[in-house]
């Protein structure tokens, strides 16, 4: 029997070591007897390690473990099983392992197991954890697939993936023939991709009677799911542990001060246990982090170190029990204070959490289809979210939950359930996917909550403007190619247009940089001036999109000329850039380039730096983002949107804000309505270029404004032949009304 190794990061779950008697080649009888006595792992045929048995005891203590027999019996006899369980009951880690055992028992004749997660961080951490518990190698028998990262192999039995990645897999394999069991986890999160999968899998289950579907959810959504799927078996898991709930109704008005006071009071009390604080938004995380770090350094060192952990949505980390090396290294007691938002509810699994502080409100993005923009709205969390935050308190000993609101607020102002993302988000990408899957005969999608008609019509109208639909409302050839890219449809259209304008390499860099997290680091107090001095070296006079290309090229040059990864990280630190974000941009760009080559799109040699190339990049950007144009109406930086009457300012980190040079017309990448109406990632364009590239029927539908009058004058000065050609295109494209052409099939 050979030792199996996996190249990659050094971890206990990735390298297996066995007793010397197994590796002996002299064939002595004692070694043979020892081998016969060891229990073999059925998933890889190797003996179980001692760690497997240690973790097995921990698994058996999980609340869900007592339901294993009942679950396996129902799995054998039914096609759909719903599992209802509280947070940290073990359903996300144990149910997939039991399903893997089921697939093994039928010799994988129907495929393996896939388990979806709403957030990439959860998919990665669960895969690592389950591989450890199953005593197999991550990336082999157990793996994960998240956007722009695939850690699976041909022999992978159990894979964790984001719901969006499974949705994309349906474009090439509509009936998901690689899987015998599909697990939709955290359905109560109500993400768009999960809701779409719930609807489409109804048809897939009818086409594949051998396929099994497991739905994991918190108890709050169970009644809705039972009525949606009909009479299906339900496994209920109860997790009971004492939690003292303290309502601090007077603290809501001054919640920030109350949070800080509570953190220091808990720490000075000497009670052991980590603290989790749920704040409204990321800005509050940054503010609290700075204050707690500053004040914490003045506390009595005899109480132990106060370690502040900001947990942002984009970070690929979750909180687990510290490993043995960490425990040995820590000679003094450490208390972690985790600062997070609603996105952290499914990321905190540590049993060391004994205190939770909940502000009871969150900042949500709510999309307004009329103005094609998100509004950042602060509103109460739901009652189901409040209950999940209560369940985060560790189960080994009593804990405390501090709610900075009254019981009356919880019962009257909080909705019972978290709103479905489908009812609050831009649906353009979702509609593009549904249109694409319609080609395979799965276009009918029975949603739990029907999307708002206005949002659907806006999404269909946008796809029509982008030339993704034909005259019958089906996907055009352009639309089919656009759906191949895991990007916003506008960005996909810009990439396709870059093939015509010979700037594919530059457009791929822009797409990668705007898709990755923000490449600029969060600045500590007092570092603004130094950071701006560094960032000025990357500024490009044509705009922020071009500045992003400069930053990426500088990062690449540094990486190529550096002897170690540490040198690259130091360079990023010196220039106040986010090294992780730039690494992610590198990965994203490589995948986008692979897609371009796979579908054989023409790709010219890069020519960044020439005037012609700069113009071509703007043409490509305008081809996708002609709906995101603004004009400085008074010369002082007050930009009025072309599509509506919202006024915005350039973001302070825009190159134009730094150089104090405000262009009249700009194309922008992002805009949200909040306290500060900022447009982000902007580049100057000319009205002549806009009129040449924007669809004529889109321009005709713009509301009356001074900006539209100026564009009319520009159009009158354009050559009559060009105007006549655009009018002919409009007539060919628009034989009917938009509503008639854009019926959702």
UniProtKB/TrEMBL annotation:
Describe the location of the Helicase ATP-binding domain by residue ranges.
72-238
Sequence ranges of Basic and acidic residues compositional bias: 1-18
Superkingdom assignment: Eukaryota
Listed under catalytic activity are:
ATP + H2O = ADP + phosphate + H(+)
- Residues covered by region (Disordered): 1-28
The record ties this protein, via CDD domains, to: DEXHc_DHX32, SF2_C_RHA
Q: Where in the cell is it found?
A: Mitochondrion; Nucleus
Which GO cellular component terms, listed alphabetically, does the Swiss-Prot or TrEMBL entry include?
mitochondrion; spliceosomal complex
* Enzyme class, broadest EC rank: hydrolase
Q: What is its EC number?
A: 3.6.4.13
Molecular function as annotated in GO: ATP binding; hydrolase activity; RNA binding; RNA helicase activity
In terms of InterPro entries, this protein maps to: DEAD-box_helicase_OB_fold, HA2_WH, Helicase-assoc_dom, Helicase_ATP-bd, P-loop_NTPase
Q: Which UniProt keywords apply?
A: Acetylation, ATP-binding, Helicase, Hydrolase, Mitochondrion, Nucleotide-binding, Nucleus
Q: Which family is it part of?
A: Belongs to the DEAD box helicase family. DEAH subfamily.
Please give the name of this protein.
Putative pre-mRNA-splicing factor ATP-dependent RNA helicase DHX32
Protein species of origin: Acinonyx jubatus (Cheetah)
Source taxonomy lineage? Eukaryota, Metazoa, Chordata, Craniata, Vertebrata
Its gene name is DHX32
């Amino acid at each position: 029997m050979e030792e199996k190794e996996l190249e990659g990061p050094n971890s206990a779950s990735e390298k297996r070591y066995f007793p010397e008697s197994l590796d002996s080649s002299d064939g002595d009888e004692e070694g043979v007897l020892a081998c016969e006595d060891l229990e073999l792992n059925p998933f890889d045929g190797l003996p179980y390690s001692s760690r497997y048995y240690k973790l097995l005891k921990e698994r058996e203590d999980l609340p869900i473990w007592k339901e294993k027999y009942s679950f396996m019996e129902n799995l054998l006899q039914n096609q759909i099983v719903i599992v209802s369980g509280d947070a940290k009951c073990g359903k996300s880690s144990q149910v997939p392992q039991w399903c893997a055992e089921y697939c093994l028992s039928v010799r994988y004749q129907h495929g393996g197991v896939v388990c979806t997660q709403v957030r990439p961080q959860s998919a990665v951490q669960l895969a690592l954890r389950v591989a450890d518990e199953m005593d197999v190698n991550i990336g082999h028998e157990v793996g994960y697939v998240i956007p722009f990262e695939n850690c699976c192999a041909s022999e992978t039995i159990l894979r964790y993936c984001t719901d969006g990645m499974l949705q994309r897999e349906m474009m090439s394999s509509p009936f998901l023939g690689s899987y015998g069991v599909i697990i939709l986890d955290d359905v109560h999160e109500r993400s768009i991709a999960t809701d779409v999968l719930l609807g489409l899998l109804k048809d897939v289950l009818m086409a594949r009677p051998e396929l099994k579907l497991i739905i994991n959810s918190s108890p709050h959504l169970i009644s809705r799911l039972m009525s949606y799927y009909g009479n299906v078996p339900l496994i209920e898991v109860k997790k009971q542990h004492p939690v003292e709930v303290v309502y601090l109704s007077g603290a809501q008005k001054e919640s920030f001060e109350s949070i800080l006071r509570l953190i220091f009071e808990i720490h000075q009390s000497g009670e052991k246990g980590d603290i989790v604080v749920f704040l409204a938004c990321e800005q509050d995380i940054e503010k609290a982090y700075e204050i707690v770090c500053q004040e914490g350094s003045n506390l009595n060192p005899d109480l132990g170190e106060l370690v502040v952990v900001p947990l942002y949505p984009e970070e690929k980390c979750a909180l687990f029990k510290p490993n043995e090396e960490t425990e040995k290294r820590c000679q003094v007691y450490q208390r972690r204070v985790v600062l997070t938002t609603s996105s952290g509810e499914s990321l905190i699994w540590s049993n060391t959490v004994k205190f939770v502080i909940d502000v009871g409100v969150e900042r949500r993005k709510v999309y307004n289809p009329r103005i094609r923009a998100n509004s950042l709205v602060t509103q109460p969390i739901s009652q189901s979210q409040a209950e999940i935050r209560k369940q985060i308190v560790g189960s080994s000993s009593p804990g405390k939950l501090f709610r900075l609101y009254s019981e009356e607020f919880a019962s009257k102002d909080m909705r019972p359930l978290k709103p479905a993302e489908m009812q609050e988000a831009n649906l353009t990408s979702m509609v593009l996917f549904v249109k694409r899957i319609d080609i395979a005969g799965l276009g009918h999608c029975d949603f739990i909550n029907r999307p708002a008609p206005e949002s659907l019509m806006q999404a269909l109208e946008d796809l029509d403007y982008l030339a993704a639909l034909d005259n019958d409302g089906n996907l055009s050839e352009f639309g089919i190619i656009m759906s191949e890219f895991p990007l916003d449809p506008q960005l996909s259209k810009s990439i396709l247009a870059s093939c015509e304008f010979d700037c594919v390499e530059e457009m791929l860099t822009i797409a990668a940089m705007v898709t990755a997290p923000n490449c600029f680091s969060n600045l500590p107090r007092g570092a603004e001036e130094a950071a701006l001095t560094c960032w000025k070296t990357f500024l490009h006079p044509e705009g922020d999109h071009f500045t992003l290309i400069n930053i990426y090229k500088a990062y690449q040059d540094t990486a190529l000329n550096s002897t170690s990864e540490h040198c690259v990280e130091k360079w990023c630190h010196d220039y106040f850039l986010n090294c992780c974000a730039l690494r992610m941009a590198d990965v994203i760009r490589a995948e986008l380039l692979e897609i371009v080559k796979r579908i054989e799109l023409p790709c010219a040699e890069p020519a960044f730096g020439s005037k012609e190339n700069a113009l071509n990049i703007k043409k490509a950007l305008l081809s996708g983002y002609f709906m995101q144009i603004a004009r400085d109406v008074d010369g002082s930086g007050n930009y009025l949107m072309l599509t509506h009457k919202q006024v915005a300012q350039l973001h302070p980190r825009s190159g134009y804000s730094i150089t104090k040079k405000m262009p009249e017309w700009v194309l922008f990448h992002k805009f949200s309505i909040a306290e500060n109406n900022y447009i982000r990632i902007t580049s100057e364009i000319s009205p002549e270029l806009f009129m040449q590239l924007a669809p004529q029927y889109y321009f005709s539908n713009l509301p009356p404004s001074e900006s539209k009058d100026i564009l009319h004058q520009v159009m009158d000065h354009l050559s009559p032949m060009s105007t006549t050609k655009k009018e002919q295109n409009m007539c060919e494209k628009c034989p009917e009304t938009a509503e008639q052409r854009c019926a959702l099939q």
